[in-house]
Specification:
422 residues; alpha/beta; UDP-n-acetylglucosamine1-carboxyvinyl-transferase, Chain; four-stranded mixed sheet; globular
């Protein structure tokens, strides 16, 4: 895909069924935990760059992943552990290294090199590990050590921090507890339990006892709700549309986006149809045509919709009135500063936005027709897809620079969008 893509307004409703890529969060964990168990079978792996980074790191550690089959035990690495631009790979792998009794140098590419890593280094040091960062960022060097359980109070609600510490806790003497200011996504807890690990889970805390071993279980990775947000948003923006996303994960700690669009009055049906690895799986049907109400999003809702907020920003541009998003400062530390990037993109499309330190204010207009424009995707897959959805309501073509960033999580997004548009 070229770096710049021309998009055109929707000329007719979007119709059809899509199956989005597998959930990256679950895929990373299924691969890493299977490696700790010594073997495993994972189906439904997504094709994006981030999961390839985890497979590459596991290979450097002596673990083979072929056709979804994981084999081999973690050993001392043969060289630097290249995490690409995947924050989940880097942060969780620090805990995996310690759980596997080894160490290594975790290196980054692109925007990952500037993302904060002391948030995992500090609790791991408290457990007795040797962890060095580079001015608080990657590369991160981890060395094996005798670990002791700790009680860690994370200043941010972060599933990556929580998972890293809990994984290290598997190799620690005594119990390890992580407290969060709000409950983050719980994929780690669900999969650890499915693999035989006993946990104590409170409203905003998790405790694991050291010395437990994982047992292999087959895992089918459901579709990624964060990716599903984009065809859903596209359908809601084009009157007469009806788009079904099938086989998608419906973990309650991830459904903030669905709650948000319900609060906006969107016409959406959600049905749980089964489960895999402790994760509920089902389908979502979204229909366009209703005028959306403005949204006031903050607190727990924002935590549970953090990755989908850019899509909600795009929807807010067409709501009837002013939407406000707060408590979202974590968005400034993603692949891009997503608050600033979306504000720039929406302004270029004629939408009034006011940046806040921890969020954004967006003035919506349901009758808005966006002008032709050239907008910047900021090298961020979620920014590109969010602005592409908004562009369906433009008067003419919109050029999106850096459109190839979608390869990170949803490589066939534009093909799906074209097919739904007929």
């Amino acid at each position: 895909m070229s770096a710049t893509l021309e998009l055109f307004p929707a000329t007719k409703p979007l119709k059809g069924v899509v199956r989005v890529p597998g959930d990256k969060s679950i895929a990373h964990r299924a691969l890493m935990f299977s490696a700790l168990a010594g073997s495993g079978e994972v189906s439904g792996l997504p094709e994006g760059d981030d999961v390839r980074a985890t497979i590459r790191v596991l290979s450097t550690l002596g673990v083979t992943v072929a056709d979804g089959k994981v084999s081999g035990t973690i050993r001392d690495p043969r060289g630097p552990l290249d995490c690409g631009e995947s924050g989940t790979t880097m942060r969780l792998m620090a805990g995996v290294l310690l759980a596997g009794g080894t160490g290594g140098e975790l290196v980054a590419r692109g925007g990952l090199a500037s993302r904060p890593m002391e948030r995992i280094a500090e609790p791991l040091r408290s457990m007795g590990a040797s962890v060095e960062t580079t001015d608080g960022h990657a590369p991160v060097r981890v060395r094996a050590a005798k670990l002791k359980g700790i009680e860690h109070r994370s200043p941010v609600a972060s599933a990556q921090v929580k998972s890293c510490v809990l994984l290290a806790g598997l190799a620690a003497e005594g119990a390890t507890t992580v407290h969060e200011p709000a409950r983050s996504r719980d994929h780690t807890e669900r999969l650890l339990r499915a693999m035989g690990v006993a946990l104590e889970v409170g409203p905003t805390s998790v405790t694991v006892a050291g010395g437990q071993r994982l047992r292999p279980v087959p895992v089918t990775v459901p579709g990624d709700l964060s990716s599903a947000a984009f065809p859903i948003a596209a359908a809601l923006l084009v009157p007469g549309s009806e788009v079904e996303v099938e086989g998608v994960g419906l973990n309650p700690t991830r459904t903030g986006f669905l709650e948000a669009i319900d609060a906006m009055g969107a016409d959406v049906d959600v049905a749980v149809e089964g489960s895999s690895g402790g994760e509920p799986v089902g389908r979502i049907v979204a229909r366009g045509g209703r005028t959306l109400a403005p949204l006031d999003a903050r607190g727990d809702l924002v935590v549970r919709a953090i990755d989908e907020l850019p899509a909600l920003f795009a929807l807010a541009a067409f709501a009837r009135g002013r939407s406000t998003f707060r408590d979202a400062a974590e968005l400034r530390k993603k692949e891009s500063d997503r608050i600033a990037a979306m504000a720039r993109g929406l302004r270029a499309l004629g939408v009034f936005c006011e940046e806040l330190p921890d969020g954004i204010i967006i003035d919506g207009d349901p009758d808005r027709a966006l002008p032709e424009a050239e907008i910047e995707g900021a090298g961020d897959h979620r920014i590109v897809m969010s602005l592409a959805c908004a562009s369906l309501r433009a008067r003419g073509r919109v050029r999106v620079r850096g459109a190839s960033a979608v390869d990170k999580s949803y490589p066939h997004f534009f093909a799906d969008l074209a097919r739904l548009g007929g």
